[in-house]
């Protein structure tokens, strides 16, 4: 896994609209890394996408992200380097309204959904480039086809399969 401060997902960052934030990121990975602030409007060199206007954070290096928060809402941050996002480098980001909450709440929860696999993400990517539906476990089988023929008849089952095949 690739973790931030020892946790996955990475820690919740709670910031305030209008503030200028300074985040110093130390890369302790053996490879280059980055942090992309997903959905935030930031200067190009703060966007965290290596190869555009940012070289990435070298192994053992640091990078200081500094930008003004011109919006509020719930976002997320993640790596844009190789497959570090898929191995755990992502986390929630909440930017609170400058004027306070719109609606008062006794308690707030941040829910972050993700999926996980122990398979190498580079292998998964290579497989999907060759066959995009490879991991689609919901595919219909010959057993499903024979059951449909028993229940609906050959003609109706064939017509339905052709219709789905055309879509």
Instruction: Output the number of helix runs.
Output: 3
| Count of DSSP strands | 6
**Estimated helix fraction:** 10-25%
Largest sheet: 4 strands, mixed
* Global structural class: alpha+beta
Write down the secondary-structure element order.
Answer: EEEEEEHHH
In the predicted model, the low-confidence regions spanning at least 5 consecutive residues are none
Distance between the termini: 38 Å
Rg value: 23 Å
* Percentage beta strand: 15-25%
Mean pLDDT: 91
The oligomeric state is single chain
Q: Strand sequence of the main sheet, in spatial order? A: 1-6-5-3
Shape: elongated
Task: Please give a structural write-up.
The chain has three helices and six strands. It has helices at residues 121-130, 142-152, 154-166; strands spanning 13-16, 20-26, 36-38, 62-68, 73-78, 90-96. Helix 2 (142-152) crosses helix 3.
What is the topological layout?
Elements: E1 13-16, E2 20-26, E3 36-38, E4 62-68, E5 73-78, E6 90-96, H1 121-130, H2 142-152, H3 154-166
Parallel strand pairs: 1-6
Antiparallel strand pairs: 2-4, 3-5, 5-6
Helix pairs in contact: 2-3
Primary descriptors:
alpha+beta; 167 residues; four-stranded mixed beta sheet; 20% helix
In short:
The chain has 167 residues and is of the alpha+beta class. Helix content is 20%, strand content 20%.
């Amino acid at each position: 896994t690739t973790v931030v401060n020892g946790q996955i997902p990475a820690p919740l960052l709670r910031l305030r609209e209008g503030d200028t934030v300074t985040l110093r990121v130390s890369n302790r990975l053996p490879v280059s890394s980055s942090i992309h602030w997903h959905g935030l409007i930031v200067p190009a060199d703060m966007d965290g996408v290596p190869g555009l206007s940012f070289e990435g954070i070298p192994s053992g290096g640091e990078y200081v992200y500094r930008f003004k928060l011109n919006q509020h809402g719930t976002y997320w941050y993640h790596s844009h380097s190789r497959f570090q996002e898929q191995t755990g480098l992502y986390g929630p980001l909440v930017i609170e309204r400058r004027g306070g909450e719109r609606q008062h709440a006794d308690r707030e929860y941040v829910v972050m959904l993700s999926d996980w696999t122990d398979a190498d993400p580079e292998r998964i990517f290579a497989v999907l480039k060759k066959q995009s539906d490879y991991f689609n476990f919901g595919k219909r089988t010959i057993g499903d086809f024979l059951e449909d023929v028993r229940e609906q008849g050959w003609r109706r089952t064939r017509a339905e399969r052709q219709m789905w095949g055309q879509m």
